[in-house]
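Researcher: I'd like a candidate sequence for this fold, 289 residues long. If you have to choose between options at a position, lean toward the conservative one.
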């Protein structure tokens, strides 16, 4: 398929862009002419992702690679600083990076891994990049959530989240996915008078690299049993791409989507009080308002 120019001159940053939904998203945005900034943890994997995009799209594809482990807030800050040094605007931000640890893991900054990667990183990165998003005039923030948010709740403190006695891989993941929706809704509310929109989505049950190598045997077993029912990353990326590029949603903000359509979310996810409470918790834990 030939390179399009529909996104020529646009800058798009995709976290978790080295595989799965993120890689498909990066490839298709590059195919539409955007300059794609692909963020991943592993340098070799990121370079292979960049090469695969250029093979699929052509040597004219504009792809930059940034290697950061976004479970650490210091790396989120470093990425944001690098983006501000290298770019004068950001048109599309896709908060795609996600993880389901399976076992309790606390980062060296004191945060449970799925909470740090799936929520604190998008919260911090988006807020730190707001000047670049605002400079674009019209910009879009797309955050990948999950239907798992239905069983999530926002714990009041880091101590509760980090407690070995209370940890569950499923609830930890679900809590972070609920946070994605609440963050999106509060962000949209705060950006109401700007040219920046914020939306989130459930991509479907996608066969990706979400499961880590140190995941519990039970969790691995459930994942493999469900694989025949899963969709491909190409299918899973369609709603992300729709929210990032479609003129149909150019002025839509603060919504949760599935299958390229507005979808119903849980009552918790739809609560302005919960969204405001989460924002305060996130600001305290990241030091970023």
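Model: Candidate sequence:
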């Amino acid at each position: 398929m030939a390179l399009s120019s529909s996104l020529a001159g646009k800058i798009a940053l995709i976290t978790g862009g080295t595989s799965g939904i993120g890689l498909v998203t990066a490839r298709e945005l590059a195919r539409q002419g955007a300059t794609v900034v692909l963020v991943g943890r592993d340098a070799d994997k990121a370079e292979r992702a960049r090469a695969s995009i250029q093979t699929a799209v052509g040597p004219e594809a504009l792809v930059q690679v940034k290697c950061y482990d976004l479970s650490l807030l210091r790396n989120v800050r470093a990425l944001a600083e690098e983006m501000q040094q290298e770019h004068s605007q950001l048109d599309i931000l896709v908060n795609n990076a996600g993880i389901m640890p399976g076992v309790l893991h606390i980062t060296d900054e004191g945060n449970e891994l799925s909470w740090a990667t799936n929520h604190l990183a998008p919260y911090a990165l988006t807020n730190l990049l707001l000047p670049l998003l605002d400079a674009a005039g019209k910009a879009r923030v797309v955050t990948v959530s999950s239907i798992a948010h239905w069983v999530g709740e926002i714990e009041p403190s880091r101590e509760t989240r980090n407690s070995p006695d209370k940890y569950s891989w499923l609830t930890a993941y679900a809590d972070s996915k609920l946070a994605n929706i609440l963050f999106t809704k509060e962000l949209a509310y705060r950006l109401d008078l700007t040219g920046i929109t914020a939306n989130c989505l459930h991509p479907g049950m996608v066969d990706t690299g979400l499961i880590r190598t140190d995941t519990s045997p039970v969790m691995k077993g459930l994942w493999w049993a469900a694989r025949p029912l899963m969709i491909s990353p190409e299918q899973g990326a369609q709603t992300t791409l729709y929210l990032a590029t479609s003129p149909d949603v150019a002025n839509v903000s603060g919504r949760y989507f599935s299958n390229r359509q507005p979808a119903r979310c849980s009552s918790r996810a739809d609560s302005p009080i919960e969204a405001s409470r989460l924002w305060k918790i996130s600001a305290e834990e990241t030091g970023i308002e």
